[in-house]
Amino acid sequence: MFSPEFYLGRADRIARRLLGCVLVRVLGARIVAGRIVETEAYFSTNDPACHAHRGMTERNRVMFEQGGVAYVYFTYGNHYLLNAVTGPKGRPAAVLIRALEPLDELDLMRANRPGRRDLELTSGPGKLTQALAITGKLNGADLTDSPVMIAARNGGEDATRFRVGRSGRIGIREAQDKLARFYIAGNPHVSVRGPRVARAAKHTGKPQWAG
DNA sequence: AGAATGATCCTCT
DNA sequence: GAGGATCATTCTC
Description:
alpha+beta; 8-stranded antiparallel β-sheet; 4 helices; disordered C terminus; DNA-binding
């Protein structure tokens, strides 16, 4: 696991560094794992897309904790979304984990998402929480020592090089100029959706897809 | 107290 | 490509 200091830096830097790392979910005797292939950074109170941009509420309370804990919240009446809180205590920022590449205990993921093809198990922020049984009970959990953790990439087969793609955030209207979404270019498990991103790319005239 | 909204997913066409 | 599901949180009256 990472030391807590890993989470104290800027959210966008950490979002990028989390690519290729391994999300670990401990379910009894089973260790469910997936490689992080897509993330999104949410900055502090000056980021209008950040839940905490208007100050602390009951819902976003854990975002104000010191980096290294999980911020899990419920949305759209159906889905839990998992974030890694970043930065020092009192400065609310986080990284949304948007997609995984399944690594371990695939059968458990399939059981949690019956009828889905393997490519659909964890290719989205709401899908991966369902596959890994992540709910609001894990809100505030310690990402360095708890049933949800994030591990560094191995020195072994996970150390393969990859290109990092970057774009505006998905499902967000505000602050598209921040280009706060990062993903492993070409990885089939990245959640793909186009319109908003395509519009943003056209608008700025700059290339926003790195593969 | 009531209404609007949303860091999404799924099922159609 | 479009719309419904579904409900906690937040904002407004």
